[in-house]
Amino acid sequence: MIASQLPALQVVIPLLGAAVAALTRRSAIAWGIALAVSWTMPLISGALLLQVLTSGPITYSLGGWNPPWGIEYRIDLLNGFVLVLVSLIGAVIIPYARASVEQEIPQGRGAWFYTMYLLCLCGLLGIAITADAFNAFVFLEVSSLSTYVLIALGRDRRALLAAYQYLILGTIGATFYVIGVGLLYTMTGTLNLADIAGRLSEVENARPVLAALAFLTVGISLKLALFPLHVWLPNAYAYAPSAATAFLAATATKVAVYLLIRFFFTVFGVIFVFKTLPVSPIFLALSLAAMFGASIVAVFQNDVKRMLAYSSVAQIGYITLGIALANQDGLTGGIVHLFNHAITKGALFLVMGAVLFRTGSVKLEDLAGLAKRMPISMGAFVVAGLSIIGTPGTAGFISKWYLALGALERGDWWLVFLLVGSSVISIIYIGRVVEATWFRPAGKLASGAREPPRSMLIPALILVAATVYFGFDTTLTVGVAEKAAAALLEGIR
Amino acid sequence: MVLLTLMAIITIGVVRVRSLFAVVILGGIYSFLMASVMIVLDAVDVAMTEASVGAGISTVLMLGALYLTKTEEAAPTHTPFVPLFVAAGTAAALIYATVDLPSFGLADNPIHTHVAPRYLDYSVEETGVPNVVTSVLASYRGFDTLGEATVIFTAGIGVLLLLKGRRRIKPGPKRRRIRR
Amino acid sequence: MRLDVIFRVAVKIMVPFILMFALYVQFHGDFGPGGGFQAGVIAAAMVILYAIIFGLETAKRLVPPRLVEMMIPLGVLIYAGVGVACMLMGGNYLDYSVLAHDPAHGQEYGILLVETGVLITVAGTMTAIFYALAGRGR
Amino acid sequence: MFVFTDIIAHYNQWVTVFLMVAGLYIVVARGNMVKKLVGLSLFQTSVYLLYISAGKILGGTPPIIEAGREVYSNPLPHVLILTAIVVGVATLALGLALVVRINEAFGTIEEDEIFAEDAE
């Protein structure tokens, strides 16, 4: 009986956890609740993915009302994969959060921090799991509002500004999304994604549908920080508390990417989006602009968290590149990179959080010679950095390999050169940090530092280990992504 | 139509006026007009909510925030080209879309024929609630409403996290007593 | 706040009526416009009105911030809890039909309960936000 | 092919579009943070019109079942918009809280002034 209720529990447990955590108001108890909840999540999502792999997509009618009248949860390979990713990251970061929250969040508010964290987790899982366009909006807002708060809790006063800017842009994005859904609803009379897809074929090419596609794309792109719409991201990631940055960088944009894939491939259909409309070249151009533009900006950053944030924008470019390629290998690469980038960037931000914890700064000049005092952390940074660059033997290589295959499949060999070129730029910015920490004499701040407590070190090392592991054993990542991509592309063949 | 025209005039007012108090009050009037429009369009529940939230709570919160900040807006310093471009682009897309939307108010539009009739036909039988808005809100799409309550919960705790606490510039004696 | 007798007396008289109106909106939501959210806003408006006339301190004695802050998660907990109860009784999440022998009755109970949850969260949140803004001082 | 009746027919839609876009314009163009939030809520509020007007049936009545009524307007958009209003006010509250904190931290709520201060 429990097994059939898993889809609802996936979202409801974090919600209940958040409410209880808010009631207790003790930081330690709230942390315990968050720990219990976030460690249950991977079990549920793992069970769900396993079930999907063995017996096909799962559907669940909330309230017992059948779709399209009620809200439906629907889990297939793609969102099963995303659920596993989000819940895993959520589980890894919670143990880490304890020490860093104690230091960064004012006393007496720790419980509410965990409440926000759980709500954000709940919102992200809710977006990923639902099969209802409007329900996705509601949970998008749950995750967004909690994200704004998490960012605003950063110690620097500029965190407030970053949160405000994100609030404005995020709300514009969400409102665009609502307009898009409204237009679709007016044309089809339904909100269930599969139902919309079925009924759209009758009215395809009608102007409101085209406009709906445009509004949805712009709205979701704001959330996923696609290149010209990424302005909120660097500040937000740079000033948010460390645990929040790592969590958001690894999950929030990824879930938005998932939503975009869902709308492009499942709702509007591959043929309509990629054959009839010039979506592919536009996304290709924007992805390339992100890969190069943001990477180059990253090279000139002195705040390492900011540098990594710009690098995130660039890496999101790789994922959208996979979407733009819209063929088997390209899309596989995009989906795999969703996962690989999440664990890699999560690891990097966790390491930087540890550095901030010990030294109080993540400015490049303050980090000089830090590797002598924190060799394990900085070693972890090097390994995860290699994965960002895409060195063979790391997870980053796998996704770039598939992206390159996808580009070749289309005959666009020049894209392969650009992929390599963008990786070269990432060597420069990762290299700057490595050079400063390993090869320079220790500065004033660095000489007083030491390794972070084990509760912070181990989560970072787990993620680093994962980036190496998934660089060799790709059965989970590529295996699932390949099947998911094949399912998404079904319409095209 | 008259109401909408009034709303348009108010919007222009909001753009032009620089006193933030006036802007907030205009916003309240706007919400009341919106509520009236909603009644005309048969959305009584929405009208009630918009009146109480848009004209009531929002205005109170805005005024409260203004009390804590400033009441005059600085003169705009940028040239308004980029915003105008953004606005024009959005307007173009919207007008492009609305021209082909199903005609206003016809009963055989897809929106009225597909999902909605079932709610109207079976609400009383299945849920015992004659106000279909309530039954859809709380039962058929009850999970959305749970999400809505969660959004409120998030905002509530978020505001408390941001505003309640010790990091104040001038800790007044009044507040001390209240905490704990 | 200045001692404004007329206002004070008027508000004193109005407060119970506003509260009654909120409850009316809450429980009449099945038949007319209204429901938990609107009722919550009205209840919060009552507290705000009271605070404006009698001062924040008096209002806080009447409705302590501690209580208000507990109400916020409590409402959500009730709502989500109803869903879990449905699950335990063999239905899907939020499937109120299993709450009573007759599905329609179950639905009615369920709707009433979740609307109460919404009322509590909304009233709590709105009051808490008002307290937070008003208590901050310039 | 623009005859007068067309203009009448589309007038409401165009005004709606104008309202939305004006809200968006305020958000993007203005540097004052409170005004931006007002613009944002105007933008959100006008989107409600898009949904509700789609749900109206001419000659219909509010969707409360009563004997003797036959045509009801569509209840589903009303439900969605109720949710959207709530989301809107939640966002507004959070935004205002942020503005208050920003004012305390920076002493101003004009974006330009803050950026100028930061640039130093």
Brief digest:
In chain C, 76% of the residues lie in helices and 0% in strands. By secondary structure, chain C is mostly helical.
How can the largest sheet of chain B be summarized? Answer: none
| Range of strand content of chain A | under 5%
Given the structure, what is the number of helices of chain B? 9
Low-confidence stretches of chain A: none
Which strands sit side by side, in order, in the main sheet of chain A? Answer: 1-2
Task: Give the % helix of chain A.
Answer: over 70%
Q: What is the string of SSEs of chain A from the N terminus onward?
A: HHEEHHHHHHHHHHHHHHHHHH
* Total E-strand runs of chain B: 0
Provide the gyration radius of chain B in Å: 22 Å
Written overview of the protein:
The complex is a heterotetramer of chains A (493), B (180), C (138) and D (120). In chain A, 80% of the residues lie in helices and 2% in strands. Chain A contains 20 helices and two strands. A two-stranded antiparallel sheet of chain A has the order 1-2. The radius of gyration of chain A is 21 Å and the shape is globular. Chain B has 180 residues and is mostly helical. Chain B folds into two domains: 73 residues; 66 residues, no CATH class. Chain B contains nine helices and no strands. With 138 residues, chain C is mainly α. Chain C has one domain. Chain D has 120 residues and is mostly helical. Chain D has one domain: Helix Hairpins. Chain D is elongated, with a radius of gyration of 20 Å. In chain D, 65% of the residues are buried. Chains B and D meet through helix 1, helix 2, helix 3, helix 4 and helix 6 of B and helix 1, helix 2 and helix 3 of D.
Task: Show the helix and strand layout.
The complex is a heterotetramer of chains A (493), B (180), C (138) and D (120).
Chain A: H1 2-24, H2 27-55, E1 58-61, E2 72-75, H3 77-104, H4 110-129, H5 133-152, H6 158-188, H7 193-203, H8 207-224, H9 232-239, H10 242-276, H11 279-299, H12 304-325, H13 328-359, H14 370-373, H15 375-389, H16 395-409, H17 413-439, H18 444-447, H19 454-472, H20 477-488
Antiparallel strand pairs in A: 1-2
Helix pairs in contact in A: 1-2, 1-4, 2-3, 2-4, 3-4, 3-10, 3-13, 3-19, 4-5, 4-10, 5-6, 5-10, 6-7, 6-8, 6-9, 7-10, 8-10, 9-10, 9-12, 10-12, 10-13, 11-12, 11-17, 12-13, 12-16, 12-17, 13-15, 13-16, 13-19, 13-20, 15-17, 15-19, 16-17, 16-19
Chain B: H1 2-16, H2 20-40, H3 44-68, H4 81-99, H5 110-113, H6 116-127, H7 132-140, H8 142-163, H9 173-178
Helix pairs in contact in B: 1-2, 2-3, 6-7, 7-8
Chain C: H1 5-27, H2 36-54, H3 56-62, H4 65-88, H5 103-134
